[in-house]
Design a protein that fits this description.
The complex is a heterodimer. Chain A is an alpha/beta fold. In chain A, 34% of the residues lie in helices and 26% in strands. Chain A folds into two domains: 1-84 and 164-171 and 194-243, 3-Layer(aba) Sandwich (Rossmann fold), CATH 3.40.50; 259-503, P-loop containing nucleotide triphosphate hydrolases (Rossmann fold), CATH 3.40.50.300. Chain B has a domain at 57-261. Chain B has 15 helices and four strands. In chain B, helix 13 (263-273) packs across helix 14 (285-304). Classes of the chains: A alpha/beta, B mainly alpha.
Chain lengths: 504, 336
Amino acid sequence: MSDNSDVLLQVIGVSKRFGGVQALRDVRLEVRAGEVHALMGENGAGKTTLINILGGIVPRDSGRVIFRGREVVFNTPAESQHAGIAIIHQELATIPALSVMENIHMGRMEARGGWINWRAMEDAARKVTDLVGLDVSPRAIVGDLTISQRQLVEIAKALAADARLVIMDEPNSSLTERETERLFEVIARLKRQGVAIIYVSHRIEEVLRIADRITTFRDGRYVGTIDRVEASVGRIINMMVGRDLANLTRRPSAGSDAPLLEVRNLSRRGKPNLQNISFTLRRGEILGFAGLVGAGRSETARAIFGADPIDAGEILLEGRPVRFRSPREAIAHGVGMVPEERKRLGLFTNMPVRYNIGLASLPARSPAGIVQHASERSLAEEFVRKLSIKLSSIDAPVKSLSGGNQQKTVLARWLATHPRVLILDEPTHGVDVGAKADIYHLMRDLAAEGIGIILISSELPEILNMSDRIVVMWQGRITGILDGQTATEEQVMAYATGMAGQGG
Amino acid sequence: MSEQTADLPIKPARASVWSAIFRARETSVFIALIALVVVMSFASPYFLTSENIFNVLRNMSTISIIAIGMTMVIITGGIDLSVGSVLAMSAMMTARLMVEFGLDPRLALVVGLLFGALAGLVNGLIITKVQVNPFITTMGMMSIGRGLTYLLASGLRGTVASNIPMRDPGLNFLGGGYIGPVPFPVIEMAVLVIVASLFLANTVLGRQIYAVGSNEQAARLSGVDVDRVRLFCYTLTGLLAAFAGVMTAGLLSNAATNAGLGTELDVIAAAVIGGASLAGGQGTVYGAVIGAAIMAVLRNAFVLLGLPAYMQTISIGVVIILAVALDRLRRRGQTV
């Protein structure tokens, strides 16, 4: 702190209010050149708001921002970019219809007299894609790339813009472990070039690995900044939530022997092709689904749930063969699914929380198709209490809630249908530590009630700690079914990469 | 965690209802309507006579009735450009059946209405099953419907007719009757609007219409039969357009081939002024009615003040853009 010469960014006393919500209250942040500065806090802590202020997306109400020695006010994203700030958003901002190089140079096309110089653009793009380790042609169409490749395109775009400050908002939330490693290499390279990085993440372990300093926000306020050497998992959690969390331990094996859902030789053409998927979910069991992104876990879940058609195979629910042609039929049979990507597939963002909670169970609770408003309200209030959903009112639109509370809202919608089988696809993706713990406890309670849970997750510790048994998928096939008590990360990864089991 | 949230009170519903009313687009549009009425009542002594008010209400009735369906279609994220043609086509069908085949007027009315509903159903089937964009589908139906209207009027003999008389006391009453001082179309409008508003706010299907427009994929995964919801909205719109067609023909005692030309734009404008978002998920029937009222009062104002007709056309265009622009500006400060 004594040496101010290398301070790149200073945020001093910044506040921001959205309607009735004080998103930021007098926060500060100091980032030095060549430093990886982690910004942590539960969802709703104000991290995203601060990023949006730095990115010129929302104006601040008060306070000062000093960047490269000058006080700055960014009124548009373009102004922020020109000043040398690049933001890699949680939700990818690439344009799928355009090529990699066009995305990288968007807004700064190499042109002479208005005509694009494609050759120069390609060369310049290749330079940065090499730097981030993205080995696709600059002419490849971004829509054809995987999510992780698109993420690298975004980082390449930041490099091409010669950004001095790169802000990454949960950059690896959809990356596999290997891709995450590559991202860390890229970050190290940026660092050596004197680029500062604000790294927003919920994953404490990795923050401890790559961050030089860690700043924590809580409820829109600044809590503190610590050096990595003084940081520990416990201390960070304490700063974020203001309390200690009981460590999640492996759950003692539960689940009866009674088969609840049997899937036999399920196959479906798609991306990837699902081939001969067979497994059994028992009553009261949490069945983990592990695998790399694109292994076919979500596709399997969608096929069972009736969201996508099945080409071949058999599904038995409590011994009786079923085949759902639509999610509606699945729901009627007591099967629920909390889909991945809650914003795209789960939420009605501009509709009130109570509509969101009530929708799936609405037909069952509405005699003659008439909505019972009083019962809808009490249902919503019941789940708001049960799941500790933090909100101002059940009539508030879902978009006013933080990520963790949005996820709980989707969960509540499914719990309200009283499912026998509940499929959870990445239920803690982008969710803060507190809400995560709530969701874990909820899952165990549900399993104890006899509900069978399919848990799809890309976070290995989550799979290992929560599952009674673990189904591992690789390229559309099941390569192994492991015991949750004894499985190790290495084992799961071996099956997930096709190095072990039927794939090898 | 539970300690932290237990004392977070859930605000009483009343407060949020009031703030919702205050913030609603419909409220500001309603205030604009009141302001317009106040200005007009000073500008012209004839404006606030009951005769004139009922006249305005009757003039807006057909637009409002079609706007009920159109609003639902727009809430689902769709659009229906064919309502003007379906209006003409259905009325022509009813008139032709009566004149040519001597069909009982009530039966002819029912066939005409079903014909309109069928056109809407076909729109819906093409949009949901073949997945053709609603704009394209209904633009095609707009052309087909107008063509069928001419065909029905002229037959295949080639003599071009532009009008077919529709003279039946019952059908004439539907479009031109009075109950006491109140034009019957105004009563029809009021009943349909109230029923539709209650339907949208209080039924499962009504709720699902909003859900489909707000997030179609999430709606499907939550068990909503998205296709059925869409089919319902387009079929209802076709049916209401047909009803408006018979009302119009009944008023004029004539089914005209050029009836309802450009009506689709008035109807869409009414819905949009009243707060419906073309992106889907937002809108109300009463908002659309307020929108229709603003346009009707404007038209009436220009007649009463003796201003040229083109001024009226210009002003309605300005109102459409202004309503949406002001709403945009008002939202700019809110949470993203």
